[in-house]
Specification:
The chain is mostly helical. It is built from nine helices and no strands.
């Protein structure tokens, strides 16, 4: 299943609540990449990206980045967001990346998150997002 065809959590929750039984729901539950490394690898393949270009656009050191992609290191929320910008992810893909990295999803009620959401939605770069964050008095995306 391609990442774009992966059902969102709201749809899955609705399916679960309306299923005849838990077992019936689990039998139809689509397989997804549950861990960060698998998700990132699949994104790379689907988008035809190279890790080195993602690290460069994300502003992440190659060594640290490779550890994340191999599943040998986790990453902080801002680093996950930097990866999202480096890969040119849309908002839904970014929310999934944050979840798999073990972090809170972007929340429109948070002013800083709202800036990031709009930057992702507009297809801006990490640098453009950081500039807007700075202009509005918020800290830029930080390293772990």
């Amino acid at each position: 299943m391609s990442l774009s065809a992966e059902p969102d959590s709201d749809k899955l929750l609705d399916d679960l609540l309306h299923a005849v039984s838990t077992e019936a729901y689990l039998d139809r539950l689509p397989e997804v990449d549950a861990d960060l490394a698998s998700y990132l690898t699949r994104l790379l393949e689907e988008k035809g990206l190279k890790r080195s270009e993602v690290f460069h656009r994300a502003g992440i050191g190659a060594t640290f980045g490779y550890y994340i992609f191999k599943g040998e290191r986790g990453c902080g929320r801002d680093t996950a967001l930097k990866l999202a910008f480096g890969m040119g992810l849309d908002l839904l893909e970014t929310q999934r990346l944050l979840t798999r990295a073990g972090h809170a999803r972007l929340w429109p009620k948070s002013p800083r998150d709202a800036v990031i959401i709009r930057a992702l939605h507009a297809g801006r770069s990490r640098e453009e997002c950081d500039d807007e964050l700075f202009e509005l008095g918020f800290p830029p995306l930080m390293d772990d």
